[in-house]
Amino acid sequence: MAEDRLKDLRSELDVINLELLQLLSKRADVVQRIGHLKQTRGVAIFDPEREKQQLDRLVEENPGPFPDSTIRHLFKQIFQASQGLQEEQRKLLVSRQRNHEDTVVTVRGIKIGGGVPIVVGGPCSVETDDQMEKIGQEMQVQGIQLVRGGAFKPRTSPYDFQGLGEKGLRMLRDTARKYGFATVSEIVNPADVEMAIQYVDMIQVGARNMQNFELLKAVGNTRVPVLLKRGLSATIEELIYAAEYIAARGNEQIVLCERGIRTYEKATRNTLDISAVPILKQETHLPVLVDVTHSTGRKDIMLPVAKAALAVGADGIMVEVHPEPQVALSDAKQQLNFAEFDHFMESLRSSGMIPALVTTHG
Ligand SMILES: O=C(O)C(=O)C[C@]1(C(=O)O)C=C[C@@H](O)C=C1
């Protein structure tokens, strides 16, 4: 008989537990909404005054049998857990704290960030069919799986070559299909994103557009991998927030790219912030590439700089290659010709910094 009574009371408790759980979850939901408001208004999470108000009211209404001290203790636990929820909400989606595992971005089956460094190569701008045909052959010889080529060129001078636009993207796509590689190309106008993803496998947000928030939102709305370059004068924190804009729209297929920043130094085109690589790897879970062309602007130091980038943990490097750099319509001085690119790749391979070339016979 006593057995049955115990069972009944326990069943009663089970029901109450579920009700409490429902109420706790309902409370947590409100807490998260408050957390969101606090975040947008820049208000601190911990609010001891508000906690005291609630505790005083609860103690005042306490019907017993729990003593006031127990009620204070129990609710303090709830406040702490609520604070934890709000703090969790504040961690950036791209932060390493939020996701401890490395994100591997897959572009047409090519993995960036999976532990095997990649080389992204190709011309600064897509110019002619002949140029792209030569590029296709050279990229194939060197086993380059992800090829870059600019069609929308944000140039310093409005009188410089601005790129072939959609036609350029089509040429890049056609070469890629013929030679079997994936493509990345820069888009500068949010309105062009939908059109561009018909052609390219990865969208680049260039340095000059790192804080073009409408563009970041537009690429964030797609599920296409994004290569996000650090702005010319952007801090590491600003780059991370730019990536967050993309992630906040649901696209976490983001690769960051250090491409040098503006300093007083004139020996290089920009100053490669090599320490940004391990910092970005530590602070975020995203893969990081280093653009050795734009950071140095000098062919003579590209190889040691590429080695340094890979040595500090970059997931790959980007380098501009052109069949005839001297007649290139953009970046003529800094693009490697094929012989220079062959040497560059061979040196990286023989030093074991990138995988050996897999040759197919027959
Ligand atoms: O009222 C707030 O400001 C909240 O964030 C909610 C809440 C709570 O759980 O009651 C959470 C943390 C604060 O320290 C104070 C109160």
UniProtKB/TrEMBL annotation:
GO biological process: aromatic amino acid family biosynthetic process; chorismate metabolic process
Superkingdom: Bacteria
Domain Chorismate mutase: 1-90
Example GO molecular function: transferase activity
Assigned keywords, A-Z: Transferase
The keyword Transferase appears for this protein: yes
Keyword presence, Transferase: yes
Protein name in UniProt: Chorismate mutase
